[in-house]
Amino acid sequence: MTTTVSYLLATRLSQAGITHHFTVPGDYNSPLLATLRNHTSLTETTCTNELNCSFAAEGYARARGIAACVVTYGVGALSAFNGIASAYAENLPVILISGAPNTNDREAFHSVHHSLDNGDLDFQVEMVRRITCKAVVVRRAGDAPRLIDEVIRWARWCRKPVYIEIPVNVAREACLLAGPPSSVLERRRGDAVGVDDAVRKVGEWVRAAGAEEVLVQVAEVMGCMVAVQPAAKSMFPEGHPLFAGVYWGERVVEWADAVVCVGTVFTDYSTAGWTAVPEVGNRITIGMDQVTVPGGSGMIDRIAPLRAHGGSALTRKEISRQIENLLTPETTLFVDIGDSWFDAAQMALPDGARVEMQMQWAHTGWSIPAAFGYAMGEPERKVVVLVGDGAFQMTAQEVSQMTRYQTPISLFLINNRGYTVDVEIGDGFVNNIKNWDYTTFLDALNSDDGYGRGYKVTKAGELQQAIERGLVNRRGPTLIECYIDRADCSRELVVWGHLLGEANRRQPAVF
């Protein structure tokens, strides 16, 4: 059967289980988008810029197991590389699809727009190879079936992003439409799982392996306690009798004779500057393709926070308490970089609730577009975002798309007038930011046809009222600006920030 390259691509995306593709239109990708837009099984979701587009796709991959991001050449793709690098670091299969200049311009070494003006049109694919597991350029329509199937196979197998570049004049060329290999058709909902860590210690590679259910079964057979790394929170049922808590630095006591680390990733962030790495002598490490055994986590005390008086000034602890009460088995909580990590780590989750963090790539502001993409992939789940004011300002434009697509996301914006996490690592004027009127900002995004709602709260009772109002808003996002004292941050963040700062200040080693 004969089809076109763009229709073949649309068919393969649909067969892979993708129902929404994220895009910023451009002239080089317009033939592709015209076909994708008209495909009966695909819904086009436009974003405000390519950075947010790639993060939205990354969030969608967390929900559905695989995602697609369609951008234009040069100015579009290079902006999207940030989110693709995130997907690589976080083990999420995102298919980055880029239009490209006409093949005749390549052969003639023409200087075309969105290029480097040196005749080299391969610079983009050469750059992206460092942040994907497979990158291809479809220069001939006859090669499209093999190359497109190959990259989707790689994305599935490696749990990493891939790249497909299709020149503007090749997209509508004829090619064969063969039956897809089983690995392209396979819909692994288990891929949309997260991280795993134990006495057993559970880390984020558990998502990539699709091993959450197996993890529970093995833990029950072993009868051992299970602690999760911060980025793996919600990947082991918190109501399970073997659940020990979140493993993060001094909050975990290393009492076990052996620590079995499953899918763990030890970074400077997740270990508070390398201070929370289990001793090698009693650590068994289980990875995607290897097991390390030395020579031939603990328990977290949970104290329920007291409920604040309705007229009391708002605090971070009270915000966390009220958000925790909001969580249900159908809730997914997105947590941005900073003190929000520590707030979420201490929340008790009902079975079925999920938490999404970007611990490895750690891009400030990631949560806004990622939550939008996730909500498009899992519309039946309630999506909640906990984000600081500094992080929000990085990617705030994507709230516009939440209003456009009437996505009922709850945004808890913690306004303490600065980048608290960076202040704790190393303070300075650069970490102070210009304050915004966030509720008015949402009104501006609504214009005359949006249903977003914005509330500014300074007291515990006001927060409760705002939450109740937000629950009935099903036609757009609800932004609740929580105004707190600048000095109100968790002790864990202070300790973590100082330890990380010390790690960053180490003198160069001599090897």
From TrEMBL:
GO terms for biological process: aromatic amino acid family catabolic process to alcohol via Ehrlich pathway. Binds 1 Mg(2+) per subunit. Residues 4-114 form the Thiamine pyrophosphate enzyme N-terminal TPP-binding domain. GO terms for cellular component: cytosol. Its EC number is 4.1.1.1. It catalyses: a 2-oxocarboxylate + H(+) = an aldehyde + CO2. GO terms for molecular function: magnesium ion binding; pyruvate decarboxylase activity; thiamine pyrophosphate binding. Keywords: Decarboxylase, Lyase, Magnesium, Metal-binding, Pyruvate, Thiamine pyrophosphate. Residues 202-290 form the Thiamine pyrophosphate enzyme central domain. It comes from the Eukaryota. Belongs to the TPP enzyme family. This is Pyruvate decarboxylase. It comes from Aspergillus sclerotioniger CBS 115572.
